[in-house]
Design brief:
With 368 residues, the chain is α+β, with helices and mostly antiparallel strands. It folds into 3 domains: 2-113, DNA Polymerase III, subunit A, domain 2 (DNA Polymerase III, Chain A, domain 2, Roll), CATH 3.10.150.10; 124-245, Roll (DNA Polymerase III, Chain A, domain 2); 249-361, DNA Polymerase III, subunit A, domain 2 (DNA Polymerase III, Chain A, domain 2). 18% of the residues lie in helices and 44% in strands. The protein contains 6 helices and 25 strands. Strand 2 and strand 3 form a beta hairpin.
Length: 368
């Protein structure tokens, strides 16, 4: 292998490649990047066996080849040297790097030891606009379980309802539902449970491409996202998704329309006093206002009023403040609707004049 390239072309890719590296020491090859040179480009792969990332960089090629090198040292060096012309070439069991005033040598491992990220992409399932899918995924991915004994809860369900695609996520305490993701017709042949981690990594990839192509391989139970020069490979979760429809209320006794940023600010203020009481805040719906409050016997109490347009019964409910903050920060709309049926039933956040999204939070039972 012998190539040369501008360091900045690769520096742009390194940060998200590092996100696919394994921290498990039992397989040293997973701490390496696979470098594959051919047809005027350098292809770099990283994987921890759960996800894989592959990206391409244009280079000047004198000699093609494949090799793996320690990813962290290579990344740290590359990000430290600024913008300059870099030369890479094989020398026995090592890979040499030279620049304007720098020389380095990396120990290598055979490319044959690096796992194959996928056999084939499978069928192109759909092409989506990057801005649209980023908005929709941001609205749901945070509600998936981080670590769960029920594998399906650590994923995001992609299914269809009334001929349109929907995204659903839940960790058992909250649930996000996004409708009208795209018109499915016959595109979505079966429900897919996509690992939430795969989606978070997709959102971290910074590519200029406006479209995201999605491939599904039934043979290998994989989903592949192609964005510009980068591929993200994830393994679908093979587990049934819970029947989430049963917990979504169909009518409400109390409704409030409120400014998202004002509500978020009030909740953050009250979390100062909620820290000692399991982060519990109380939301009280009164005439033309919402009162957010927190009470800690060892610290004190506070409350903040937020103007709102309210209809129906006066009501109150208690939540884990973090759950409310999560949904409010995931949305970028100005006005939200909050609906509820009483302190023991879930509360629901929606976007004003937009029926395509809802977020449900289970209440906390409190005394008094």
């Amino acid at each position: 292998m012998k190539i040369s390239f501008l360091s900045e072309n690769l520096q742009k890719k390194i940060s998200f490649l590092n996100r696919a590296l394994s921290s498990r020491g039992q397989l040293p090859i997973l701490s390496n990047f696979l470098l594959d040179v051919g047809k005027g480009k350098l292809t770099i792969s990283a994987t921890d066996l759960e996800i894989g990332i592959i990206t391409e960089v244009p280079v000047s090629v004198e000699e093609e080849g494949r090799i793996t090198i320690p990813a962290k040292n290579f990344s740290d060096l590359l990000l430290s040297i600024g913008n300059q012309k870099i030369n890479l070439y094989s020398d026995g069991d090592s890979l040499k790097l030279t620049g304007e005033k720098i020389k380095a040598s990396f120990q290598t491992m055979p490319a044959e030891d690096f796992p194959n990220l996928y056999e084939d992409k499978g069928e192109e399932f759909i092409t989506l606009k990057k801005a649209q899918i980023e908005e929709f995924l941001t609205r749901v991915v945070f509600a998936a379980a981080i670590d769960s004994t029920r594998p399906a809860l650590s994923g995001v369900l992609l299914d269809k309802e009334n001929g349109e695609a929907i995204l659903v996520s839940t960790d058992g305490y909250r649930l996000s539902l996004q409708k009208n993701v795209f018109k499915t017709s016959e595109d979505l042949k079966k429900p897919l449970v996509i690992p939430a981690r795969t989606i978070r990594e997709l959102l971290s990839i910074k590519e200029d491409a406006e479209d995201i192509k999605v491939f599904v391989s039934d043979k290998n139970n994989q989903i592949i996202f192609e964005m510009g020069e980068t591929l993200l490979v994830g393994r679908l979760i093979d587990a049934p998704y819970p029947e989430y429809q049963k917990i979504i209320p169909t009518d409400f006794s109390t409704k409030a329309v409120v400014n998202r940023e004002e509500l978020l600010s009030a909740i953050k203020i009250c979390t100062i006093f909620a820290r000692e009481t399991a982060n519990i805040i109380k939301i009280s719906i009164d005439k033309n206002k919402i009162i957010i409050s927190a009470n800690s016997p060892s610290v004190g109490e506070d409350s903040v009023e937020v103007e709102a347009k309210t209809t129906g019964e006066e009501n109150e409910i208690a939540f884990n403040a973090k759950y409310v903050i999560d949904v409010l920060t995931s949305l970028d709309k100005e006005d939200l609707v909050f609906e509820m049926n009483g302190p023991l039933n879930p509360g629901v956040f929606k976007i004003k004049e937009d029926d395509s999204y809802l977020h449900l939070i289970m209440p906390i039972r409190v005394q008094g």
